[in-house]
């Protein structure tokens, strides 16, 4: 099989069922592999041979799902916490943070070359400046652009195909991320999280958040992540804006963000039940092309959502 790499147009190729992406990387590593991730930061693993090997095995599982599903693969870097404030908490200055982001993209590019899937995109993933569960004060978009720019430039310099911002809690930060990506010459996806009522943590409706970002600095597309499908459904209506949502990365648990924050044990739900609940969301998204998981999910959940057997070994 000839693998297509690097072309964002592949996301919309009707010959592909869509694109598989991974699950809840951090929760999987912590609860299933016993990895200690201070501050929920997985990016330091890319600088350690054992860490790189573990990450390689992790992504291999999702490549197997994509191959079984006849789908493309989004390889999203383990860099959700690799921004200046969070990186500083685990001992990384800005130069070291940039080095880790470049190393993460290099790792994924190497993995992509070995996968037998129809199309692969290497994605530089970033997270919010603050807590992904709490909105806090909305940033000025220009401030957000300047804040995220070093990480985005690192992705561009390393040859990423796309920037993916996940678990954003305010439209303003989404605007800043888009500005940083455009400045770096990269396509960009903006991913918002929602509470159990379908609203962003800052109280915005998902519809209003999409419209606000589109009006100021439109990304290539949007995602919704870190919410159970039953929390995403209330956010969806019949408006044209839903065509801007290209996919979801859903949580395994129906618990709220506040409940998840206090949980001491992993709630990984039931993969088949999650797949059934996700189907209701997918049917409401006419542009649906990307499907993966977030907190509490692993390759079993993503395989179930794609309707293929979970890989073993």
Question: How many β-strands, per DSSP?
Answer: 9
What would the average pLDDT be, to the nearest integer?
Answer: 95
Give me the number of helical elements.
11
Strand line-up of the largest beta sheet: 2-3-4-5-6-7-8-9
Q: What is the H-and-E element order? A: EEHHEHHEHEHEHEHEHHEH
Instruction: Report on the biggest sheet.
Output: 8 strands, parallel, barrel
Radius of gyration from CA coordinates: 17 Å
- Measure the end-to-end span: 23 Å
Shape: globular
Relative strand content? 5-15%
Q: Which class best fits the helix and strand makeup?
A: alpha/beta
**Helix amount:** 40-55%
Q: Poorly predicted ranges (pLDDT <50, ≥5 residues)?
A: none
Structure, explained:
With 313 residues, the chain is α/β, with parallel strands linked by helices. It has eleven helices and nine strands. It has helices spanning 25-33, 49-69, 84-89, 94-112, 141-158, 171-184, 206-217, 229-232, 257-262, 271-282, 299-306; strands at residues 4-5, 19-20, 72-76, 119-126, 162-168, 188-192, 221-225, 245-250, 290-293. Helix 7 (206-217) links the parallel strand 6 and strand 7. Helix 2 (49-69) runs parallel beside helix 11 (299-306), helix 6 packs parallel to helix 7 (206-217) and helix 10 packs across helix 11. The longest helix is centred in the first third of the chain and has 21 residues, at 49-69. The mean pLDDT is 95.
């Amino acid at each position: 099989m000839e693998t297509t790499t690097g072309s964002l147009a592949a996301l919309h190729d009707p010959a592909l069922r869509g694109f598989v992406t991974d699950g809840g990387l951090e929760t999987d590593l912590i609860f299933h592999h016993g990895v200690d991730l201070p501050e929920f930061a997985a990016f330091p693993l890319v600088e350690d041979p054992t860490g790189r090997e573990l990450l390689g095995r992790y992504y291999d599982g999702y490549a197997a799902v994509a191959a079984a599903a006849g789908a493309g693969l989004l390889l999203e870097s383990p860099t959700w916490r690799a921004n200046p404030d969070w990186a500083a908490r685990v001992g990384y200055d800005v130069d070291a943070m940039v080095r880790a982001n470049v190393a993460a993209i290099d790792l994924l590019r190497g993995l992509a070359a070995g996968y037998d899937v129809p199309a692969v995109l290497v994605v530089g993933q970033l997270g919010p400046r603050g807590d992904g569960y709490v909105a806090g004060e909305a940033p000025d978009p220009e401030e957000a652009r300047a804040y995220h720019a070093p990480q985005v430039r690192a992705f561009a310099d390393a040859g990423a195909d796309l920037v993916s911002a996940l678990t954003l809690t305010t439209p303003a930060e989404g605007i800043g991320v888009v500005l940083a990506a455009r400045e770096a010459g990269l396509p960009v996806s903006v991913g918002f999280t929602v509470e159990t009522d379908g609203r962003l943590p800052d109280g915005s409706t998902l519809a209003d958040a999409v419209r606000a970002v589109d009006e100021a600095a439109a990304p290539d597309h949007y995602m919704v992540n870190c919410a159970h499908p039953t929390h995403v459904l209330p956010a969806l209506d019949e408006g044209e804006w839903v065509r801007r949502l290209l996919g979801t990365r859903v949580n395994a648990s129906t618990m709220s963000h506040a409940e998840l924050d206090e949980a001491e044990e992993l709630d990984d739900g039931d993969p088949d039940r999650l797949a059934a609940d996700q189907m209701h969301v997918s049917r409401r998204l006419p542009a649906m092309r990307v499907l993966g998981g977030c907190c509490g999910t692993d390759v079993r959940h993503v395989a179930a959502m794609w309707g293929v057997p979970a890989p073993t070994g």
